[in-house]
Amino acid sequence: MGAAALKAWYIPGYGGPERMALGDFPEPSPGPSDVLIEIHAASVNPIDAKVRKGALRPLVKYKFPLLMGTDLAGRVIAVGAKVRRFAVGDAVFARPNRMRIGTFAERIAVHEDEVALKPRRLSFEEAASIPLVALTTRQAMRDVARLGPGAKVLIHAGAGGVGSFAVQYAKHLGAHVAATASQAKHELLRSLGADQMIDYRTQDFSALLRDFDMVFDTQGGATLRRSFKVLRPGGIVVSVVGPPDLELARDWPMPFYLRAAIALLSWRVRRLASRCGCRYRFLLMQPSGAQLAEIAQLIDQGHIRPVIDRVYPFEQAREAMAYAEAGHASGKVVISHGRASTG
């Protein structure tokens, strides 16, 4: 691994939770368009478990040892020669691109296009909970579904990490929001702005809702398939966990056999969409500092607030991953280095 310069959580290969370990790694070397960030906090996301298990192997060829973690908040400690938007000392947050992950670490180099100034009103721990869920939600609702005032949106797992942000963002767009969650989390949903709360344990959302413009799916499986029942003709299901669709197969470099496999995997969902005159899209989020800057402004204006379930110290990143992976958190799980929480 070279001369030890920083500590980071990594995996030596794909597998279960026991694969994640804390080790010493060389100092990141920022390129001319990179900023070097001292990480104050990072958050845990479902994608982290997928990376560890190897679920993304068909799309991304990672090298080992692989540093873990996919979003962060921290302070700029060095900038590349071509960087113009950031300076040493800036408080920032970011979601690095999928080939440069590794935010469960003390420092990281990130391309400046994937970085934004941290919302002023948030601590580093709060800001670290935002990037991935914010970009996922914004791209699903604005870029794909093109929601506007008066739209009707169903958000599955509305009290979860993505869902708790999505409820607030949909309300900011002027939508009518229904969300699923256990009864114990309905008060949280109400405080975030949800108009309808559905207890997924005792109620069937597909029997209660009709004529929705969008379903934001974070569950997949039978929940995804039943979601088409609530849409109006022309409505759309956007999923972050369902089968990849033909658009991904066209846009992402991959061999023919993998394109054919994607077509087969998504056939059932595409047939359901066709039968109801609706659409289906699988969303693979793209990093964007410009979009994060837009989100930061909304947060500083008070339109959206972070929802954090627990904060773990950096040394307990494995425990933080296990808790998040259990699927019962309300909002995000954050890993903190214990540095100054504001700035």
Provide an overview of this structure.
- The protein has 343 residues and is of the alpha/beta class.
- The protein has 2 domains: 6-129 and 306-336, Medium-chain alcohol dehydrogenases, catalytic domain (Quinone Oxidoreductase, Chain A, domain 1, Alpha-Beta Complex), CATH 3.90.180; 133-282, Rossmann fold.
- It contains 12 helices and 16 strands.
- It has helices at 46-53, 124-128, 131-144, 161-172, 186-192, 205-208, 221-227, 246-251, 256-265, 267-275, 289-300, 317-325, and strands at 6-11, 21-25, 34-44, 66-67, 72-79, 91-94, 107-111, 115-117, 152-155, 176-181, 196-199, 212-217, 231-239, 279-282, 308-313, 332-336.
- The strands form 3 sheets. Strands 3, 5, 6, 7, 8, 15 and 16 form a 7-stranded mixed β-sheet that branches. Strands 11-10-9-12-13-14 form a 6-stranded parallel β-sheet, sandwiched between helices.
- Helix 3 packs across helix 4.
- The radius of gyration is 20 Å and the shape is globular.
- The two termini are 33 Å apart.
- The mean pLDDT is 94.
- One of its GO terms (molecular function) is oxidoreductase activity.
- It comes from Roseateles oligotrophus.
Structural class: alpha/beta
Annotated CATH topology of the largest domain: Quinone Oxidoreductase, Chain A, domain 1
Low-confidence stretches: none
CATH hierarchy: architecture of the largest domain: Alpha-Beta Complex
Q: Can you tell me the overall shape?
A: globular
The ordered string of helix (H) and strand (E) elements is EEEHEEEEEHHEHEHEHEHEHHHEHEHE
Distance between the ends: 33 Å
**What is the number of E strands?**
16
GO molecular function: oxidoreductase activity
Protein name: NADPH:quinone reductase-like Zn-dependent oxidoreductase
InterPro entries: ADH-like_N, ER, GroES-like_sf, NAD(P)-bd_dom_sf, YIM1/Zinc_Alcohol_DH_Fams
Organism: Roseateles oligotrophus
